[in-house]
Amino acid sequence: MSVPRARLLQLMEARCKLFETTFNPEGIRAGNKILRQRLKGPALAGYYPRRIWTMQEFQSEFRDLHLMVDDEKELDRFEHVSLLKQRGKGAPKKKNSAPDFKKGKK
To answer: Residue ranges of region Disordered (predicted)?
Structure first.
């Protein structure tokens, strides 16, 4: 003796209401498992330290006082780029303008 499908669906629906789960008799993927999980954003945001000022922000903030502040990382980068250019390993020059493509000529 088997139970009709309609009765099984009614029982499943009642069980879902009782235990506050989603009623999904077709078994379609809905993402409920992932949506029930705790959010990871606050934990990830708390992992990284708070951002401190960059040298550019520091210089722009105290520009009114006419303080000379050297950004050592930036100076090292400029020195490295100039050494690369001397050896011919620097970035290529930018184009001045795009070539003119006229009808029939490429």
So the answer is: 86-106
